[in-house]
Specification:
Layout: H1 2-16, E1 19-20, E2 24-28, E3 33-39, E4 48-52, E5 60-64, E6 69-71, E7 77-82, E8 87-92, E9 101-107, E10 115-124, H2 128-183, E11 190-196, E12 199-206, H3 212-220, H4 226-230, E13 244-251
Parallel strand pairs: 2-10
Antiparallel strand pairs: 1-3, 3-8, 4-5, 4-9, 6-7, 7-8, 9-10, 11-12, 12-13
Length: 253
Amino acid sequence: MGFTLLLSVAFLSVTHASITGPNSKDATVGESVELKCDFDTSYRDYQKYWCKGYYQRSCNVLVQTQGSERKSQDGRIKVRADNTKGELIVYMERITENDKGWYWCGIARHHNLDLLSPIKLNVVQAPKSLTKDKGLLRLFLTLGLIFGILMVMLLALVILVINKIRKHKYRDNREKESKIENSIPKSNSVLSRELEGGVTYATVTIQPINHPQEDSATYNNVKPSNSQEAIKPPVTEPPAAEPTEYSTVVFKK
């Protein structure tokens, strides 16, 4: 019994002597993990691989190098061998619960036992608070984007309405201006008309009408006495009435 145990220890020592790695590694669901095994540079020309399984004799080879680097079929696992430094680096992306378990860094040797180093990969869930914060952040970003688009559309609508109101007021002012101009008298009594600064000036001259013949006839129908005839003042033509000018100022809105 003691001899068998000693033989097993000696066998493992020889098997693991030329390649070593961490005993275990922690990974988080949905994230990536990097593992590294060191090997003797005398094995630089040998193929290296990464396999999964509890028993080294029956582990499933996931990726085996051909040259310095190679990826798995699904693209999640990449193995790169730096033969100058003697490093075998394994990259695993998008970790899932099924990725947990035992893995082996291996060096294939023809007609001899492969060199292997075991690594236990522990997979844990991401913190719930972090996941929740990411969900809230995405929600806030989406709502902010929608709100920004709505505000831009509302601003464009307000500008469009203001422009239409301005055009409508300008058209109404033009119509009122035309009506005011058309309401100014067109007869010869209008001496001047000027439109300046939104104000219309109109000067109208009114000539009073005198009837001297009616006054004379009324005076002739009266028969004065001799004494009144003696003091009757000489008849003279009444002075002509001077024309009167009226100015009208119209303020436009």
